[in-house]
Write a structure and sequence with these properties.
Layout (H helix, E strand, L loop, with lengths): L7 E7 L3 H18 L3 E8 L5 H11 L4 E6 L5 H11 L4 E4 L11 H7 L5 E6 L6 H18 L10 E3 L2 H5 L9 H12 L4 E6 L14 H29 L1
Length: 244
């Protein structure tokens, strides 16, 4: 397989994931060395209280050209961590994977092979080991998202996008886990950006438990959907005014 040539930043958000990073980071570093011409990992330590910072620093000391670290002084949540990583990237393209091992680094191959120069490449899961409650909530959220933003595509896993894209979108989400991906996708669709999709695998966490599947995050997510709705309308109105 040929090397992936566009410059790429792989963002890894991490909150108290020290044990999982001992597996995920070496695999990610090995992957970008073997598969990319110009690729860097940007790990965002979201205010961890375990040894996440120590583990990340040890790997960064060994390969400083391939691993950069951003540290939040306190925990701000997944969307805030992704914002820091996305806007902190200096490459042509940006993607991300979680630090918990649910998306194997090798799954990036499917994304890189599927990429055809789109502004945004979404991923869906072939199968996700969710329970009935989470599956029901996901379906409910998708219906609400479609009603509020008009976005009907499946958006389940990590995504790949042009770094310049997010400078055009005036992102407003900064709290609920997952909302930044929805905002990027919904606004890109409404602005007529080129969007592709591919299917990947989702695995159980290597260890530990999810920090986003709770009632507080769900309530916050609903609020973020409303913020996206208002911001999307303002963005479209501004584009119409510029076109006159």
């Amino acid at each position: 397989m040929s090397l992936f040539e566009p410059s790429l930043t792989l963002v890894i958000p991490a909150f108290n994931e020290a044990e999982n990073l001992k597996v995920v980071l070496p695999e990610a570093l090995r992957y970008i060395a073997e598969r990319c011409v110009n690729c860097q990992i940007l790990l965002v330590d979201d205010g961890s209280s375990d040894d996440t910072a120590k583990v990340a620093a040890e790997f960064a000391a060994e390969q400083p050209e391939r691993l950069r670290i951003i540290t939040h002084p306190h925990n701000q949540g997944l969307t805030a961590a992704l914002r820091s990583g996305f806007f902190g990237a200096h490459s042509e393209l940006v993607t991300w994977i979680p630090a918990d091992g649910q998306i194997a680094v090798s799954e990036l191959d499917k994304m890189l092979r599927a990429y055809r120069g789109e502004d945004l490449l979404l991923t869906t899961y072939r199968h996700r080991p969710d329970g009935l409650w989470r599956a029901t909530m996901s379906k409910t959220v998708r219906l609400l998202v479609r009603a509020a933003t008009g976005f009907a595509d499946r958006l389940e896993g990590p995504y790949l996008f042009r770094r310049a894209l997010i400078d055009e979108l005036h992102l407003v989400c900064n709290r609920s886990a997952g909302s930044i991906g929805l905002e990027i996708a919904a606004k890109s669709r409404s602005l007529g950006k080129r969007i592709g999709s591919t299917e990947i695998e989702c695995l159980p966490r290597l260890s530990g438990h999810s920090k986003v599947a709770d009632l507080r995050n769900i309530v916050t997510y609903f609020g973020e959907i409303w913020r996206i709705h208002r911001s999307q309308r303002e963005l479209l109105a501004a584009r119409r005014d510029m076109a006159r």
